[in-house]
Amino acid sequence: MDKNVNKSGGLTLMGILIALGLAKAGWILYSKRYIDHHAKPNIILDAEHHTYHSPAAGAINFFVNGQGNQTPLLLIHGLHPYAGLYDVLPVFEAFGTYRPVYAIDLPGFGGSEKTDRPYRPAMYQEAISDFIKNQIGKPCHVLTLGNASTFAAMAAVDESAWIRSMVMINPRGFEMPHPTTLKAHSYRERVQDLFLSYLKVPLWSLPIYDFISSRAKITAFYHKRFSYSAPSDLTELAYTSAHQAGAHFAPIVLLSGKLNVPELREKYYEKLTIPVFVVYDNEPGTSFDMLPQIVHEKPNWEAYRSRNTRGMPHFERIGELFRQFDLFWKKHDK
Q1: What is the C-alpha end-to-end distance of the chain, expressed in Å?
Q2: Distance of alpha carbon 119 from alpha carbon 247, whole angstroms
Q3: CATH code given to domain 48-178+255-331
Q4: For residue 235, which of 223, 245, 247 has the smallest C-alpha distance?
Q5: The predicted structure's pLDDT at residue 15
Q6: What does the alpha-carbon distance between residue 234 and residue 157 come to, in Å, rounded to a whole number?
Q7: For residue 276, what are the β-bridge partners?
Q8: Which of 180, 157, 192, 190 is nearest to 274 (CA)?
Q9: CA neighbours closer than 13 Å in the CB half-sphere of residue 179
Q10: Model pLDDT for residues 69-85, shown as the tens digit of each residue
Q11: Interatomic CA distance for residues 128 and 276, integer angstroms
């Protein structure tokens, strides 16, 4: 009786494994033959469209709008598997009346270069610094979204003369600290390296990304970050951006954890000497437990809570937030 049960259970497990293997092979075949990886984002803006060639990060896609002699503004979108400058378009379109406004696609995302290379925090830091110094050519205000605040803060610590102030919308790095040992840190890095090696296997690297960047998953991602419905043009731009040649290279590095910066608050945020304005809300999976402490301890920091929004407050609270932004930037214009 026991032998029969074990044999039946073994056959069932084997059947499940075979089915999973066939499903995986089928999806790989479908991804390679039937999914278009040469889509073209159709961002229609009344703005100049250019490409900046960064020595450190390759071709950087950007738009510039506005004029005047006020301090320029640089907008930097956050990083997620379908990210691009379209995530900050409401700010771009609102503030070009009296100052130049730049919006860039970070390396590996949107319309910027998407080659297979070692995407790391230092590359993003250098891309931001290089763009400010050699394309904008003068100190600017910076607005960042989500985890891109990491790289902007790194740039501001090392190049404080070039960044006049910083607005962070739902930045990462304010969760409660979790003390860790050097051994644990080393182990985490090895796990990340192993995971990245798996994700980069050419046979299934692109099919994995195709699975997580389906239209349904992109719609669900943005739906969680809007109190009401996400704009359809936003999800469409994200979909087309995620289906270009090479669009999977940077996101799989992001998914592996290799773009995370440990102890971000202690290493960078607390060392910022420029004025910082944080807008935060109820974005899923994001913690701001330590934000009140840094605002209390650092006179150059201030924060504003956007209520009833879930990650994209600059789309849903335009009147409320843009007035706050305008007052902050005018206060620190020189």
Answers
A1: 85
A2: 13
A3: 3.40.50.1820
A4: 223
A5: 54
A6: 32
A7: 166, 301
A8: 157
A9: 0
A10: 899 999 999 999 999 99
A11: 17
